[in-house]
Design goal:
Layout: H1 3-7, H2 17-30, H3 35-41, E1 49-50, E2 56-60, E3 70-75, H4 84-91, E4 102-105, H5 120-127, H6 136-144, E5 149-155, H7 157-168, E6 175-182, H8 192-203, H9 206-213, H10 216-225, H11 229-236, H12 239-247, H13 253-263, E7 268-274, H14 282-296, E8 301-306, H15 317-327
Parallel strand pairs: 3-4, 3-5, 5-6, 6-7, 7-8
Antiparallel strand pairs: 1-2, 2-4
Helix pairs in contact: 2-15, 3-10, 4-10, 5-12, 7-13, 13-14
């Protein structure tokens, strides 16, 4: 299945013809590649780097010269390291925007994997919906390398972190060009049990989303990145992840988005969600998008309300790539 036909499942007319062609071309080039062949094609010979500050990431560099003052940053979903699965996901769209280094930044994940340690005060702030502690290592990393401009993107909890990074980037001398928030979580107040049930319901559709990609490398990557349910659950029970989970029950997304706009007036933001999502509920997201269109202006804010999409469809490589590439297009009203 090529990228175009996969996207037709969701209503591909949401995406620019340029984006559809890019996804189709990359999907056809990658469809029969093994995981190892995909990495070799993109000149990637090592997977994970870790800093003393607790930043756990993969960096993909352009093969030609690039501006050291720029970065793109993709934040992974909840309890997900920058593993093989996340790398394959990024490589479905990176070749179409391969002029800027891409950092894939992980979340505190399964047992025996590196995890950012947070203080009691930081965990307390997390429980109130302020995710600042989860992005500080990344922002310090950019500041130490004299990065002046960055794009921040993410899916699910990664979208909430991408927003928080955009909100706080000015504190580290970083200007934000593009922000892409796909399927954020902090859009309504809900109990921890209700949130857990929503994620559980979303997981029921994961295999179908992966199958729509029909990509050999993705199937290999999913198997490689599987750490086992016991270690995954153990990671979720870490104090940091418990604090994060409680923070995700808050409805602090809109307030953070307006603060980000205040500090980054030239930033272009894209908010994307599925009309059948179990996490980014369509009704509240419609209201939120209207509020943000008013705050940002139509030239600086894009809203993608995607028919048939569920939360798990973020693992459809073609849909995920189309959302990211659409958000990286030059600004325009929609």
């Amino acid at each position: 299945m090529n990228g175009r036909s996969s996207l037709e499942y969701y209503g591909h007319t949401l995406f620019d013809p340029e984006v559809l062609l890019q996804v189709q071309d990359i999907a056809e080039q990658q469809s029969d590649l093994s995981y190892a062949e995909l990495l070799a094609q993109n000149h990637i010979d090592s997977l994970v780097e870790q800093t003393a500050e607790g930043l756990y990431y993969v960096q993909i560099n352009p093969t030609s010269e690039y501006d050291e003052r720029r970065r793109r940053v993709y934040f992974t979903p909840m309890a997900t390291p920058p593993d093989e699965n996340m790398l394959v996901r990024a490589l479905r769209w990176f070749p179409a925007q391969a002029d800027v280094p891409l950092l894939i930044v992980g979340s505190p994940a399964g047992l025996k994997l590196p995890s950012q340690r947070l203080s009691a005060n930081e965990r307390s702030a997390l429980k109130q919906g302020d995710l600042a502690a989860t992005v500080v290592p990344l922002l310090r990393h950019l500041e130490a390398r004299s990065v002046e401009q960055a794009d921040f993107m993410g899916f699910s909890f990664g979208a909430d972190r991408a927003l928080t990074a955009a909100r706080d980037a000015h504190l580290h001398g970083v200007n934000v060009g593009r922000a892409i928030w796909a399927e954020p979580v902090r859009i309504v107040e809900r109990s921890l049990l209700a949130l857990a049930r929503s994620f559980g319901s979303a997981g029921d559709h994961l295999e179908a989303a992966i199958a729509r990609s029909e990509t050999t490398a993705l199937l290999e990557a999913v198997n490689r990145s599987d750490i086992g349910m016991a270690r995954y659950i153990g990671g979720l029970l870490r104090p940091t992840n418990i604090a994060i989970a409680r923070g995700l029950t808050r409805d602090t997304f809109e307030a953070d988005a307006k603060k980000a706009k205040l500090h980054q007036p030239d930033m272009t933001a894209t908010l994307a969600w599925g009309q059948r999502s179990e996490i980014s509920l369509d009704g509240p997201m419609q209201v939120l998008s209207q509020e943000l269109r008013h705050a940002y202006g139509v030239h600086n804010f894009n809203a993608l309300s995607i028919p048939r999409m569920r939360h798990a469809d973020g693992d459809d490589l073609n849909l995920h790539a189309a959302i990211m590439l659409q958000g990286l297009l030059p600004r325009r009203a929609n």
